């Protein structure tokens, strides 16, 4: 057996744990001045901020890492992804800081908001064709850049197309929707079903590639021209189910044939037959624009800014920036422990005399009698006895998720790696959690407790038995059931969030 | 795909040869302009090599031609030169280097991973691979460079033979230090490298790494250090790593060693009482193993006995809002175990006897 550590003299942890002096992190709150909130999400808000030294305006997304459900590893993957993008058509990532328990992601600021923002505030709630052509061309430059690096955006929609103060377009990950990052998490997956390519939803054996972005672009063109993605009035879950089976949506109304043709090309159901971003850049829908900047959105941006000012439009962040977990004046730890006389000395002195001396003082059998359920055993025998079988319960802990494999490879390079990694994650995630036992049974027990009348209790327990039977005959049913309920709830929640904005 | 060759490659192996030539010029270059020119050439040849290997050129290269290029890459030790000059290359070119490594590593012929087999015979490349991130730290734009260098290691760690080579290299210990300091990118990726290193291929880690007492001791020392003194993010990641490692059956030696030391228990108890919920929960998952150990060492037992009432008091209100059945079961079990510890009646006990549950 190895006596593990040699470092750590007494109190070295307690003393130095108080905000490690050997790490001197930059404190972003000292470097930037936070201005108003420009976007919000379920676990992070986006602010306009200025660099105190240079005066440069930036966007900062602040994610509270204590609250977010995302693993730090996944957020880190997204940061790595962002840090690989340097192009004029994509919002530039500058730096990430961690202060207190929050991550501060500093990005290029797009003062015009997102195209979805503009759609919402412009009086006509839509863009004329030549403006759409301008937006689409810029987005295509961005996609061409991404796709050339085997990266997929996966969340192309007006809300993720950002506009600078000068009316220029930047492909970004964050807008009012609050979905800063384009991860393929379930919630994101559900959050924006209207734009999703059929192959993503169907999840065939072939997975999907960058052509999925082209489909979403087609839907986005419809959104920009009409103010909404197709079927926007329908139930998102139904739309999601229908995308793979239905014919691709078509543009209705008075639009030119190049616009219709462009959309039809993007919305080919077979990803193979969809054109690439580079090919689309030569489409006649875009060729009306003679030079770059011709149709920028400066006018729209200025108009919307003026409108917002008139109605005193502002966003209220969901999280406080100033509230801190490790606030000054608070102890870093909630409890102090008694480590006196418990350090090194004892272990160095195995001889029974000193052993005796180190024994906790004034321990009498009456106390033991009272406090120990295993009163028949003396404290020493409890320690030394091999018969005391303490079950190791940890094996089933859901906390034991594989940290490394959780990475969402699909976000970054290697289109082919993604599928294998996904499969792995699913296997692992499934290992610890028993859907029937941990969720269904648990919920039934709770409902049972809540039930007031005997009759209700009876019905509940019958239903539970039925469920158990069903799970036994169709293993995996609980998982599917829970998943569906979860998706639906998320969906409704998102819907409520959207409409309350 | 538009790239224009200075010297048009006549054969497939020319791609590698031209790139290798340019890379070797960095050493002797004196003026900024010349350096710039070499950078441009490298970017161009690198992109060309990448496109060729990925079959993205017209006409699509034959399998023989691709094999020829791979052979040239090996013969010229191009991978070594790419690593050695990574910092000299431009932003986009560095990404191409990472992609080129990933592509090469995946390359197989007749069910054999050709590049992996080649790297096994070239320990100096693997060694340089592990040292590139450290070199990156001294350069401008270090985070970015570090990420690229690190991603090459992460890619290599997917292959057992390369993982085993890395496990033998003392350079790996430095990643704990990088995890502790450094930018968000540097510290998170360092921990991911350590995580991959120790979790993907469990057999060699168990039989060749943790089987050596010196490694075991050093690992515990290092991970304790980052758990105690790292940033908030580093603490969370390292607690998570340790929590995961001690649950791996094959690493039973690690578990036993860890839960026998009172110093480790102290650290875990301190983390258990941290203000961060996530750190509390992570360390609870380690703490419970100390508690569940049927053969606690005397010093470990002493600490628990001495803190019996404090622990019970703390655990009563610990994460009470959780609805996780497994957690609640485990918490109950831990409380029961601690209750069954002998009680101390000491005049300077912090809690009057009334606060501990009576039976």
From TrEMBL, chain A:
Record Pfam families: Pkinase
Reactions catalysed, as given in the entry: L-seryl-[protein] + ATP = O-phospho-L-seryl-[protein] + ADP + H(+); L-threonyl-[protein] + ATP = O-phospho-L-threonyl-[protein] + ADP + H(+)
Chain segments carrying region Disordered: 350-402
SMART domains: S_TKc
Biased composition (Polar residues): 387-397
Record's keyword annotation contains Transcription: no
Keywords: ATP-binding, Kinase, Nucleotide-binding, Serine/threonine-protein kinase, Transferase
Residue ranges of domain Protein kinase in the record: 32-286
EC number: 2.7.11.1
Residues at which ATP binds: 61
Gene Ontology MF terms: ATP binding; protein serine/threonine kinase activity
Cellular component terms (Gene Ontology): cytoplasm
InterPro entries linked to this entry: Kinase-like_dom_sf, PDC10_dimerisation_sf, Prot_kinase_dom, Protein_kinase_ATP_BS, Ser-Thr/Tyr_kinase_cat_dom, STE20/SPS1-PAK
Range of residues in the leader sequence: none
An individual GO BP term: fungal-type cell wall organization
Family as reported in the entry's similarity comment: Belongs to the protein kinase superfamily. STE Ser/Thr protein kinase family. STE20 subfamily.
Protein name: non-specific serine/threonine protein kinase
Automatic annotation (TrEMBL), chain B:
Pfam family, one: Mo25
Gene3D superfamilies cross-referenced by the UniProt entry: Leucine-rich Repeat Variant (1.25.10.10)
GO molecular function annotation: protein serine/threonine kinase activator activity
A GO biological process held by the record: intracellular signal transduction
Family affiliation: Belongs to the Mo25 family.
Protein name: LAME_0E07052g1_1
Species whose genome carries this gene: Lachancea meyersii CBS 8951
